[in-house]
Amino acid sequence: MKKFLLFIIGIMSAMVGSSQDYPIKIKTLKNGLKVIVCEMPTHGFVQSELWYRVGSKDETVGTRGIAHMFEHMMFRGSKKFPGSLIKKIEQSGITQFNAYTSFDRTVYYEYAPVNYIDSIFDIESDRMANLIVTQEVLNTEREVVAEEFSNGENNWYQKLNYARYKTLYPSGHPYETDVIGLYTDIEAFTAEECIDFYNKYYSPNNAFLVVAGDIKSDEIFSKADQYFGSITKQLTLSKRTDVPDLFTSKIKQTDMPIDYPVQIYSFIFPAPAIDDKDSKAYKMLMNLLFLDQNSIITERIVNKEKLAYTLYSFTEPEMVYSSYSLIDVIMSPMPGNVKVKKEIREEVAKVIASGIPQDRIDKYVKSFEARYIMGSYEPSSIAYRLGIAEFFFNNPDAASKELSEIKKITSDDLKRVAAKYLTEEAMQFINIKPSF
Amino acid sequence: MKNIQFYRSILFTTLLLILITVSGFSQSLNYEVYKLKNGLQILFIDYGTVEATAIRMYVNVGQKNETPGFQGISDLTAQALLYGNVKYGKIKQQDLLYSMGTTMSANANEKYTTVSCSFLNRDIDAGLDVFAAAVRQPLFPAEEVKQQISEFMQYNNPKKMDISELAQRFSNLFVFGINNPLGRNTYSAQVGKFVANDYKEFYNFNYTPKNTKIVVAGKLDKEKLKALFEKQFGNWESASGEINQVSFEQPVFKGKEYAFVNRDNATQVYLLWAKKAPTISDKDLLAFKMSISLFNRRLFEEVREKLGKTYGIYMSFNESQNNGIYTVSTQTRSKEMVSTMQAFDKTLENFYNTGITENELSRTKVKMKNSYISINEPSSIIGYFNPLIYPDIKKRLNFLNDIDVITVETVNKAIKKYYNPESYKLVIAGNNTELSDQLTKLKGLQKFENNAIEVNQ
């Protein structure tokens, strides 16, 4: 059965698509690793990104934070490259490298002259297949992660986010715990838990590779096969279906103290998963209403009436599962601030009743298009776009279709989405005030 | 959405990223210097593959020019350029920029002020019109200035600042002293006295064609751009000329000096070391720069990877600030303060004693060159050609060749000069209650009250 499965997913599929102004080519290796290549001019440099479909959403009780912790461990040595991988990567001449962990994914990336692609693939394939995890190194690295956690505790806004996050999601939701995890769990991870996590999620069929730059796709496919092709471990992929409903879930706290001299009204709305039909209209709606530099609410309460300093959101716009959008309105702490809440509700109600004026939608589309073009210099930007498209839609070509899909969104679409996600029943609120 | 929260584990590459944002080019660069009759110099650089243009205006005014009582006015004035002008109100300006898919930014640092924007070439006429209106005809509306000052005051309470910010503020004071404009901090009671007219006077005196230079990079139609700049800036006149060449004494380091500032409830301590660095005119500047990534690697290896003391420890040197210092900073748990200081001392001493090897230098040269050559965005290349810092463009273009002639001996000589382990100024910000025992071990420790930054002479 396993061999048959490998055969099915291992059919070498070479597809040709188009992304931005540059051609993209795709090939899937026998072990399921999809390789996406974009040939673009970059002064002889290449961006390589290895995306794993694992994030904090995959953690269980007792191991909160292990996805991020494990990202650190991926720099602590593999069979062919023992010891500090950071040192090895630097010594290899790779210009830039780093990694990040989010709720849904973990991404490792490098930027280097094109002739370093062998070094990049050599390191990435070895740590995909042969990572070394010892308790001794884990004990040191957990101290580093604990300090990263504490850095947040010593920043007023991040500290607020830690505390607030605990009040948001219902038990059992994939985003129940923030990516950084729980301090008590971080302090207690064992090497065995890390190795289990690695064996379960760091497999070629749970990852894909994006390469963009002054390269030839056939050469990249050949090298990818050479370095990654022999890795055989496989993950049985699945998406959870038992995700708690956020429309009916209530946050646990509606007032919070803060050790900083500002007041924050935090508006919380349910947000659709990325594959939901409402996703793109929802994103446009939230930008036009709250977050863009000239959004309806920024224009009224920040620019015209000067009741608030700014509006801010730290939530991710694209998520695998339904999530919450948080909009923070940051103000001077004053008794009259209640007016801000009233006015925001008024504007939300207007959108639910009448949608958003077409001229604002037209500007959004024009702005999106311009930003899209201006974001085409860097191979890192192109690789990110392609990665997002592949990660969420299993189709890197979706990146180039986003503009045409946005152009189809109408005021009625925004009105319908607002009436579903921004109602008084769906909206929740936290009043955050100085504690001194 | 405005921000995506990720947890990045390896910030060691920060230094490389900084290099990339300030520099890089191909030596076969196609450029042209164009001067308007009023003295305004514009540097055009053909760069990039996208039909777009990046513009940055450099004004030779910054913290260095601020007199006592006027700390912060250069940055606040720069920000207020975007609050509306004779031609476009703030909301209309934002709306136009939004439609063009761009934003305009303006800020001032220790040495100079920048106003930056990028446009698609199809929008360049309208874009330059918005840009020119903002920088040439600002109104500094009283209500906008009042809101700006209110926000500033909200975020500048020294008893509530994060430890990183506290350390930075007190380090300026500790290193440069109150008689140096770089040592005087901006604070609420002083900024609270500013009115819109202060901005106007500051603007009229400092924002002049002869005190300003502009760099334009992208896929350029130069003849069209020249005509546009003539139209938008050709009639810009000012009674003031090139006025802001300020010099002041370099900071003096006498052994290991320590200072402390308290932050109630902090669970970590922030350590910020300052040390002497070369200035832009020093011959060993490039040799010193070669040492930076190697010292950073050693700090990272010793303090983070081997000991797990911290999430990050970074050496930082900003060549364009030209302030004669570099810093090393880290944040660690309170109980590890002294042991982290010892780890730093040991690493510094080892680096001073051993210097670097031929192999390390070779790798550093390759990395440094790659960091420059790999730049793709015109908005990054215009930082490399900052005309206030690098007035000789031909000399600047020779940078890659300059790298080649650096030897191990010259780098190690620079290390002996700038990494003396017995000399630095360290500012510690943290919780006095948790740190008191460890603080008693520091000889000559100077304790600052939180409001000590609220003085101006």
Radius of gyration of chain A: 23 Å
Q: How many domains, in number, for the residues of chain A?
A: 2
Structural class of chain B: alpha+beta
- The share of residues in extended strands of chain B comes to 15-25%
Between the first and last Cα atoms of chain A, what is the distance in angstroms? 65 Å
* CATH architecture annotation of the largest domain in chain B: 2-Layer Sandwich
The arrangement of helices and strands of chain B along the chain is EHEEEHHEEHHHHHEHEEHEEHHHHHHEHE
CATH fold group of the largest domain in chain B: Cytochrome Bc1 Complex, Chain A, domain 1
Quick one: CATH superfamily of the largest domain in chain A? Answer: Metalloenzyme, LuxS/M16 peptidase-like
Biggest interface goes to: A-B, 83 and 76 residues
| CATH class label of the largest domain in chain B | Alpha Beta
The average pLDDT of chain B is 90
CATH architecture label of the largest domain in chain A: 2-Layer Sandwich
Label the structural class of chain A.
alpha+beta
> What is the overall silhouette of chain B?
globular
Range of strand content of chain A: 15-25%
Strand ordering within the main sheet of chain A: 1-2-3-7-4-6-5
- CATH topology value of the largest domain in chain A: Cytochrome Bc1 Complex, Chain A, domain 1
Question: Fraction of residues of chain A in helices?
Answer: 40-55%
